[in-house]
């Protein structure tokens, strides 16, 4: 079965890489003692934390993967944030490849198969962020992490790896 026709594979690779940057890979609703209910929405390059019941200016916090990692340093959950940082690097590599493919499609395509490489990068990002989600869940982070974007990363990577290439 062919999901992507060869004449559109490069364009799809670019669009899927851009979607991968914009989609949250993890959403977690938690109840933390002393804080109340908290919603975490984690994107590849940042996390939004919203604490319910207080003014929005104090309730919303934005952190990068490295900022969140330093905040959790010394805790058992820090390894999940390390995995997130690795996943962010992989998604960043896919994004950089998409920029090169967008701007220099013929040159990039003549050097290697950018669609296949993009498929591997997005699938790898899905794998690393799956590990991060699993670590969040098993290392005692309250709430159930829902891997929203992780599933899509696997689908994106798989579609590109199965693309018919001529």
Which properties best describe this structure?
single chain, 166 residues, alpha+beta, five-stranded antiparallel sheet, 58% helix, elongated
Written overview of the protein:
- It is a single chain.
- This protein is α+β, with helices and mostly antiparallel strands.
- It has a domain at 6-23 and 66-161.
- It is built from seven helices and five strands; from the N terminus they run H-E-E-E-H-E-H-H-H-H-E-H.
- It has helices at residues 9-22, 56-59, 65-71, 78-103, 105-111, 114-138, 148-161, and strands at 26-32, 36-42, 47-51, 60-63, 144-146.
- Strands 4-3-2-1-5 form a five-stranded antiparallel β-sheet.
- A hairpin with a 4-residue loop joins strand 2 (36-42) and strand 3.
- Helix 1 packs parallel to helix 6 (114-138) and helix 4 (78-103) crosses helix 5.
- The longest helix has 26 residues, at 78-103.
- The protein starts with 8 loop residues before the first helix and ends in a 5-residue tail after the last helix.
- 31% of the residues are buried.
- The model has no long low-confidence stretch (mean pLDDT 89).
Layout of helices and strands:
Blueprint: H1 9-22, E1 26-32, E2 36-42, E3 47-51, H2 56-59, E4 60-63, H3 65-71, H4 78-103, H5 105-111, H6 114-138, E5 144-146, H7 148-161
């Amino acid at each position: 079965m062919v999901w992507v026709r060869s004449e559109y594979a490069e364009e799809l690779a670019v669009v899927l890489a851009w979607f991968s940057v914009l989609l949250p890979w993890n959403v977690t609703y938690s109840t933390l003692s002393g804080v109340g209910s908290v919603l975490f929405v984690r994107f590849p390059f940042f996390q939004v934390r919203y604490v319910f019941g207080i003014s929005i200016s104090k309730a919303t916090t934005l952190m990068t993967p490295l900022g969140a990692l330093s905040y959790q340093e010394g805790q058992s959950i820090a390894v999940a944030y390390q995995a997130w940082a690795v996943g962010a690097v992989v998604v960043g590599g896919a994004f950089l490849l998409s920029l090169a493919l967008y701007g220099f499609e013929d040159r990039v395509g003549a050097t290697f198969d950018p669609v296949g490489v993009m498929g591997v990068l997005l699938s790898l990002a899905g794998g690393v962020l799956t590990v991060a989600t699993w670590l969040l869940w098993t290392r005692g982070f309250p709430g159930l992490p829902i891997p929203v974007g992780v599933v899509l990363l696997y689908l994106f990577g798989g579609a590109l790896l199965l693309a018919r290439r001529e």
